[in-house]
Amino acid sequence: MRLRRNYGISADHYDSMLAAQGGGCAICRVAPGEGTSLAVDHDHACCPGRKKSCGECLRGLLCEDCNRVLGMFRDDPARFESAIGYLARGRS
User: Fold this and answer.
1) Pick from 36, 40, 48, 92: most CB atoms within 10 A?
2) Distance CA 23, CA 30 (A)
3) Would you list the domain boundaries of the chain?
């Protein structure tokens, strides 16, 4: 019910998305644990002001950590590129 209500998809659609991702998070590939599922990620810019997704802007299924990072970085690719550059420089 929650998938249909919040994202406009069925449990079967969720399962097919999970299978297409190889059974794990679209970013880090971790598989969902016992009794847990992956979050449905969607482009928040697509549905501004809405608490629910239109269902057309779904990007994939993410573990809690990866989903949280996207939110903290506000889906901004420049922040991710900057973070990658920072990590690649190593310790100074």
Assistant:
1) 40
2) 8
3) 2-64
Q: Which of 1-5, 6-10, 27-31, 40-44 has the highest mean predicted lDDT (pLDDT)? A: 27-31
Determine how many CB atoms are found less than 10 A away from the CB of residue 15. Answer: 10
Which position has the higher pLDDT, 54 or 75? Answer: 75
Residue 23's region, left for phi above 0, alpha for psi from -120 to 50, else beta, is left
Q: Is the pTM of the predicted complex or chain greater than 0.90?
A: no
Taking 90 as the threshold, does the pLDDT of residue 35 lie above it?
Answer: no
What DSSP string describes 20-75? Answer: HTTSS-TTT-PPP-TT--PEEEE-TTTSTT-SS--SS-EEEEE-HHHHHHHHHTTT
Question: What are the structure tokens assigned to 28, written together?
Answer: 């880090």
Name residue 62's beta-bridge partners. Answer: 39
Which CATH architecture does the domain made up of 2-64 adopt? 3-Layer(aba) Sandwich (3.40)
